[in-house]
């Protein structure tokens, strides 16, 4: 953070932005502006270098091939790892989440190296694809209301020793390995399987990232009515049988 301005970096909108994940950037931007911050948003395409001076980095989900291309470019670039070692905050969704781990299975059925920013490993799920609305309780340490989102993934994610589960599912599959966990985090790097876009349903996650960036414990209240209506609609969809 410098002065009153927040630098928000949206990584690879040309490769990783399915299910409206780009909405996460809009929500973080809006919630920050509502708190009087001046937001500089930078959308970094996959042929551009990742700046290392961002405060918050967002990375979305994607199909298997773009996911492999994104992983190759991010490894080669190295900027995201440098930004995290400088204290940056990262929030990733689905394919992006898998890329931030140690490895995942790519579209060729091979093990693809990730960035190692999250202590997780993703493998290909043997069962049915995990698809549908999810309701989960976020790690109490983060002090956030329940998580609502939509999942659609074949990969499943195993947490290593140092990763904390982001949430524990009440409905839905989450990480898909049967331990009830959804997502993971290591310090300021977060991963979730929730699309939606997840921040439109869970604006408190955007607020958490902003608080971490500002290094404050609380933000002035913002109008949550629209988000709350969407939350309630989607929680009903997750908890009622189809
Ligand atoms: N290709 C990955 C999987 O199926 C991620 C999919 C996604 O981002 N929706 O596990």
From TrEMBL:
It catalyses: beta-D-GlcNAc-(1->4)-Mur2Ac(oyl-L-Ala-gamma-D-Glu-L-Lys-D-Ala-D-Ala)-di-trans,octa-cis-undecaprenyl diphosphate + L-glutamine + ATP + H2O = beta-D-GlcNAc-(1->4)-Mur2Ac(oyl-L-Ala-D-isoglutaminyl-L-Lys-D-Ala-D-Ala)-di-trans,octa-cis-undecaprenyl diphosphate + L-glutamate + ADP + phosphate + H(+); L-glutamine + H2O = L-glutamate + NH4(+). Residues 8-202 form the CobB/CobQ-like glutamine amidotransferase domain. Substrate binds at residue 129. Transmembrane segments: none annotated. Pfam families: GATase_3 (PF07685). The keyword Transmembrane helix does not apply. Pathway: Cell wall biogenesis; peptidoglycan biosynthesis. InterPro entries: Class_I_gatase-like (IPR029062), CobQ_GATase1 (IPR033949), GATase_3 (IPR011698), Lipid_II_synth_GatD (IPR043702). GO terms for molecular function: carbon-nitrogen ligase activity on lipid II; glutaminase activity. Its EC number is 6.3.5.13, 3.5.1.2. Gene3D superfamilies: 3.40.50.880. Keywords: Cell shape, Cell wall biogenesis/degradation, Glutamine amidotransferase, Hydrolase, Ligase, Peptidoglycan synthesis. The active site is at residues 94, 195. CDD domains: GATase1_CobQ. One of its GO terms (biological process) is cobalamin biosynthetic process. Forms a heterodimer with MurT. Belongs to the CobB/CobQ family. GatD subfamily. The lipid II isoglutaminyl synthase complex catalyzes the formation of alpha-D-isoglutamine in the cell wall lipid II stem peptide. The GatD subunit catalyzes the hydrolysis of glutamine to glutamate and ammonia. The resulting ammonia molecule is channeled to the active site of MurT. HAMAP family: Lipid_II_synth_GatD. This is Lipid II isoglutaminyl synthase (glutamine-hydrolyzing) subunit GatD.
């Amino acid at each position: 953070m410098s002065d009153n301005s927040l630098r928000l970096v949206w990584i690879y909108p040309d490769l990783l932005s399915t299910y409206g994940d780009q909405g996460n950037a809009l929500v973080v931007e809006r919630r920050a502006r509502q708190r009087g911050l001046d937001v500089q948003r930078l959308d970094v395409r996959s042929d551009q270098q990742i700046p290392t001076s961002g405060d918050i980095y967002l990375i979305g989900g994607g199909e298997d091939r773009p996911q492999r291309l994104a992983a190759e470019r991010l490894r080669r670039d190295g900027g995201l790892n440098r930004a995290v070692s400088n204290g940056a905050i990262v929030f990733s969704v689905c394919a992006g989440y898998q890329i931030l781990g140690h490895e995942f299975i790519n579209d060729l059925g091979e093990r693809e190296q990730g960035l190692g920013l999250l202590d997780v490993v993703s493998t290909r799920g043997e069962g049915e694809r995990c698809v549908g609305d999810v309701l989960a309780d976020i790690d109490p340490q983060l002090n956030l209301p329940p998580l609502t989102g939509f999942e659609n993934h074949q990969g499943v994610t195993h947490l290593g020793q140092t990763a904390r589960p982001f949430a524990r599912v009440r409905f839905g599959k989450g990480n898909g390995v049967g331990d009830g966990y959804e997502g993971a985090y290591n310090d300021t790097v977060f991963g979730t399987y929730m699309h939606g876009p997840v921040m439109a349903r869970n604006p408190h996650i955007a607020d958490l990232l902003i608080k971490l960036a500002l290094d404050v414990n609380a933000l002035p209240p913002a109008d949550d009515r629209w988000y709350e209506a969407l939350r309630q609609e989607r929680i009903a969809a997750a908890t009622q049988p189809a």
